[in-house]
UniProtKB/TrEMBL annotation:
Domain Beta-defensin-like: 30-55
The protein, known as: Beta-defensin-like domain-containing protein
One Pfam family it belongs to: Defensin_beta
Domain of life from the UniProt record: Eukaryota
Lineage, opening ranks: Eukaryota, Metazoa, Chordata, Craniata, Vertebrata
Amino acid sequence: MKILFLLLSLILLLVQGAAGERGRGEEGQIKCWRQRGFCTIHACPQATHIIGKCS
């Protein structure tokens, strides 16, 4: 029974960590929007520059 309790605690800890990792990608987009930029997957259009992952 103790093993089950420890296993459940470990699973919950891993789920919280995975949720935190997923949210980090959005942080770059928010920073970009604050600096009046826009996010793109492809190369930057002419007359724009890169701000981290955004342009």
